[in-house]
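Working notes for the structural subgroup meeting. M.R. asked for a predicted model of this chain before we commit to crystallization trials. I am recording the input and output together here so anyone reviewing the notebook later can reproduce the run.

Input as submitted:
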Amino acid sequence: MNRIFKSATLGGATILAFSLTACASATTPDASGTGQAGGKCVTGPVKVGIIPKLGTDPYMVTVKKAAEAAAAKDGSTVIYTSPSDATGAAQIPFVNQLISQNVNAIMISGSDLNSTSAALAKAKAAGIKVVSWDSDIAPESRGFFLNQADTSKIGDQMLMSMAKMMNNEGEFAILSSTQTAVNQNAWIASIKAKLAKDPAYAKMKLVTVAYGEEKADVNAQKAKELVQAYPKLKGIIVPAGIGLPAAAEALTQSGDLGRVKISGLAPVTLISQYIKTGNVQAVWWNVGNLGTLAFNTAKMYAQCKIEPKEGTSYTVDGLGKFTVGADGVVLLGEPTIVTPENLTSFPF
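Returned structure, recorded in token form:
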């Protein structure tokens, strides 16, 4: 099915100069002249480097496994790096590392918009094609952005889920990951816009936005602090896969889960026990499919078979047809609110 979405950002950063090499072997000039700087086209299998926001995050690992499975079909190679901190600065050395390893393409989930811009410019100059996935970077730093779903719809679904559990009235908070998380900031902006304009949420009040820093223990502590700081709190939206399970467990231990409902994003298998109680809901999609889509897009981009031009269509085996939207954005599909009724439909 066709997927179209719009996105617009800008950015820039500086890093120390780094020695560059050309892409891996089996490349030919890009006769179209429409590819990224370097003009290299791979023939045959490709070497793709993956830079997640946090290497140990189960979400990121699931994407990695799906990409590896897709790569194995034609002898392509995946190099998965592992930043230990979810910051843009922590991702820069891994961009440089992948340049030195002569990858054909880089898949990056941006911890912020701008930190990796200069490093990725070096990669592009070396003929390396760049795509972002899950969380975008500055559009001039990449070709495609493989988004799991329409950004505004993800925010809308989290708010809708929260509203239903709160009966559309009362105080709630947001417990995000980091202040620079591109995707989560976009979801939060969408939630705030909906609150301001939609009369269905007129009796709901967002009291604060807190940050769990992509660490389970910090999220657990922040969840407890929110409940203590706001005695009338009826819900928390946690748009972070690490944060939601930690918050649910923390409020279970404190006896507050139930009185305080939780919605957000998290691997369904990590929070299924809380979803079954009706006190937690998740907005989710097939994460493995995102890895398959991102890898195949990066591969075809490196092979000069597709370009990030609006209206371009291409097919990914097993997933179907996708259409490029504005700014090179491609959508995986629609987000779904996970409840006890549809819980078994989500394998991760």
